[in-house]
Design goal:
single chain; alpha+beta; 5-stranded antiparallel beta sheet; 1 helix
């Protein structure tokens, strides 16, 4: 599970076996987790265990780093 970014206690990462899906990022902090689609359009797949402030933080951090995450996705999966 390659880690793309660690910030404010959040870990943004990819599962190495999900290259058949569109570009996305997983986020975890403690027992909470999230999945965010980066392409074809930014959208939240799910939030589990994050409160509304944390959800907003995750969305903001993802938006701020989306180009880096997409680049890392394609570099890692060789697409």
């Amino acid at each position: 599970m390659p880690t793309a970014l660690r910030i404010d206690g959040y870990r943004f990462f990819f599962y190495s076996n999900e290259n058949n899906e569109p570009a996305h990022i997983h986020v975890e902090k403690g027992d909470a987790e999230a999945k965010i689609w980066l392409e074809p359009a930014f959208s939240v797949a799910y939030f589990k265990g994050f409160n509304s402030k944390e959800q907003n933080d995750i969305i903001r951090i993802t938006h701020e780093n989306i180009s880096i995450f997409i680049k890392q996705w394609y570099e890692y999966f060789g697409k």
